[in-house]
Amino acid sequence: MKIALIGATGSVGSRILSEALTRGHMLTGLARQPEKLQARNGLRAKDADLARPLEVAKTLEGHDVVVSAVRFRDFHVGDLLEAVRASGVPRLVVVGGAGSLRVASGQLLVDTPAFPEVAKLEAQAGATVLEALQRADESLDWTFISPSALFTPGERTGSYRLGKDDLLIGQDGKSRISQEDYALALVDELEAGAHPRQRFTVGY
């Protein structure tokens, strides 16, 4: 599979890149500082700034899928959608956020009292991206993958659970997923295409 990964140098993006390359996929890593990408078999690095969507579209052309691993506050969703549509790539997979997931009370996680104030603007921007995808016409095959509440670098255990719109809670009472296992789940989705035009979530 030919994958265009926007945000390839980030914490999550770099783990997705490694997972996909390990499985033999061909990747184009797009970043504002592509020189940070270490040379690896199957990888080519390209400069990209989503504020210039038509330039990005030229780099995306010819790929099977675009993956966005960019922080929501670092781009405008309209620019991302314009770049993907102009490129002719039919499929977009987005590294989502947990803030728009429901909790047991029926509230969104971002609206609960314990949600960190410092993370609210990013979570709200993520919800805006999800809403834009849900409004997109059916010519775009999109998937938005939300992590669990605690989403940090860790261990690749090789196991995870899937959910839909509700926050997953593990047997230990915590909502968490390592970035390594999230990358595993995302590349599994790239290969299987099991959630077209849907949001789903991943956790332990």
Automatic annotation (TrEMBL):
Q: Which domain of life is it from?
A: Bacteria
Q: Where is the NAD(P)-binding domain?
A: 7-191
The name on file for this protein is: NAD(P)-dependent oxidoreductase
Q: Which organism is it from?
A: Variovorax humicola
